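Handout for the seminar on molecular recognition.
Each group receives one record of this type.
Step one: identify the two inputs.
Step two: read the structure output and locate the region that could contact aspartic acid.
Step three: write two sentences on what you found, then compare them with the reference statements printed after the record.
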Amino acid sequence: MALIVQKYGGTSVGSTARIRDVARRVARFRREGHQVVVVVSAMAGETNRLLALARELSPSPDPRELDVVAATGEQVTIGLLSIALKELGVEARSYTGAQVRILTDNAHTKARILEIDEERVRRDLEAGTVVVVAGFQGVDRHGNVTTLGRGGSDTSGVALAAALKADECQIYTDVDGVYTTDPRIVPEARRLDRITFEEMLELASQGSKVLQIRSVEFAGKYLVRVRVLSSFEDPEANPTGTLITYEEDENMEQAIISGIAFNRDEAKISVMGVEDRPGIAYAILGPIAAANIDVDMIVQNIGASGHTDFSFTVNRNEYRKALEVLERERAAGRFQARELIGDNRIAKVSVVGIGMRSHVGLASKMFKTLADEGINIQMISTSEIKIAVVIDEKYLELAVRVLHKAFELEKGGNGG
Ligand code: ASP
Ligand code: MG
């Protein structure tokens, strides 16, 4: 007997028929004698619909009230799933985040989980009851409803698994695991049986949408055993999905490159011809951080004649705001620049693999592959296990396809 947390995403609970399927899958695990906690998202499209309603009434709805509205989506699903489970003769109980007491900070719309009171859940599990918890939501210490950011149900699932010391956290989605890249772009993309936690973290932060990045961070912190699976697969076939691992398994041959992530959600800002002096990076990026805008890549060149060019990327929906902040600072004389250039038609492509630690020449292979296709690289950034480049958005799919082939990812990723 194991304690399993299963998280089902929006498409997995997108209709009452799908909810019934989920109930059957849960019932099967119960019959095998496992204790099961189920964490659910809102039905597909529901969170978008709720947020749009609020925006019909205000262009910038009050975040506290926005959370009150958004959290209702998951409340519907927990009730419906519990009804479906009882209909199958399975004892089940639903709880909102506040009822469990998933305590968060008060950063409405992007709250962080601080603590989970797992006592009640544990008591139900011991009585043989399936516990159905609303994902994406919690409560702050004053009793205000909070939400954890888009895709936050993954984090609810992993956090509950950590609090309960569950044997496994199964994340059910509409793909049967983590792929070498998006199969919609590269049909030869391959499902990975396992991926290391570090690689998963890079893939999630570089744009792979399979898991919310915060959930991966959480898993790493508490060493939660996470498995990504499809809720559309036949459970009788015992699908294994993709397991996130924590130690490099000595006996397994490790692929050099594991995957290619990409992201179209970024925009680039270049500050051209700024004075080259101590404090200039802070003069430019300090106000950006103060405006709560996340910066991803940063490049500064050694300049000629006391001047330098400075470029960075931000999320595309914060691009306008970032440009405004810089125009304002420049007008106020905080820095001098010849020109401010924005480009929101860029994309980022990243090659990720733990094997980069022990293999050389992977970056040059990536650059040559792109050069052979005439794709210009605008920015480069690297980590121990990642090389990321910014390119023109219109070459994104081509870049992903040629890199997938060059690194032989369809065969196992040893083409480094
Ligand atoms: N329903 C929320 C969203 O769409 C949370 C989730 O699905 O993980 O972002
Ligand atoms: Mg999701």
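Reference statements: Residues 9-10, 41-42, 47, 73, 135-136, 150-154 surround aspartic acid (ligand 1) (CB under 6 Å). Residues 16-31 form the longest helix (16 residues).
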